[in-house]
Fold this sequence. Notes:
Blueprint: H1 6-34, H2 40-63, H3 66-93
Helix pairs in contact: 1-2, 1-3, 2-3
Pfam families: AtpR
Protein name: N-ATPase, AtpR subunit
Keywords: Membrane, Transmembrane, Transmembrane helix
Amino acid sequence: MTWPPLYETAGWLMAGGALASVYLYLVGRTVAAVAPPFAPLAAAGYLILRIALAGALFTFAAWNGAWALLTMFAGFLLVRSLSVRYIAGLEHER
């Protein structure tokens, strides 16, 4: 097995990070839609959009091989972890 080029790995890592950013933004919009005044259609739309987006992009990565899928997932988890730590820090300051 040969290792993929660094630029390819970095690209998949950044794609996973971008997906996580959009995904977490849509999670926030879903939470905002559930809060009063309640907007169930907006909440359902954001939910369906984020699941479809994640499913489509992870499927595309899987078609490009296991390394692409794992690297994209690592980028997703990295941005998610950093976001959770940032939000926890904001909550701790209150």
